[in-house]
Design a protein that fits this description.
This protein has 135 residues and is an alpha/beta fold. The protein is 40% helix and 22% strand. Strand 1, helix 3 and strand 2 form a beta-alpha-beta unit.
Length: 135
């Protein structure tokens, strides 16, 4: 039960807060991500998080996503914006900088945008598994 004390101490907003995650791209209606995460969240009984497609005609519209999407916590990035989004970020992970592309953006508690590239980890682990099997 929510009490007046909870509302006064801002606990009510935290209880009803819906975190937002999403996919940034262009012409991404084909993407399975939105439905995948919707089903995953339902199966895992995660009720405080949604996953949306941010289908932008131009990367110049990216700041409006950040400004107008309340409680956005993270974004996956797909082609053609993996490189183009980098100038909009506050910080870029060392590996992502070396690769020259970002596929994951974390929004910090202070609202800063930090870019990462997780493709390299998946690729590395795939090769590692292949070479372990071949050995």
């Amino acid at each position: 039960m929510v009490t007046a004390h909870d509302i006064q101490n801002n606990k009510f907003k935290k209880i009803n807060q819906v975190n937002k995650l999403g996919l940034l791209g262009k012409n991404i209606s084909y993407s399975f991500s939105k439905n995948y995460f919707k089903e995953k969240f339902e199966n895992e009984k995660i009720t405080d998080t949604t996953y949306e497609n941010f289908d932008l005609e131009s990367i110049d519209l990216f700041p409006s996503i950040i400004e107008n999407t309340k409680n956005i916590k993270g974004i996956n990035v797909t082609i053609p914006y993996k490189e183009a989004v980098m100038p909009f970020l506050d910080k870029i992970n060392k590996k992502a900088k070396a690769i020259g592309a970002v596929n994951t953006i974390k929004v910090t508690k202070k609202g800063k945008l930090v870019g990462y590239n997780t493709d390299c980890y998946g690729f590395k682990n795939t090769l590692k598994t292949f070479f372990e099997i071949a050995a």
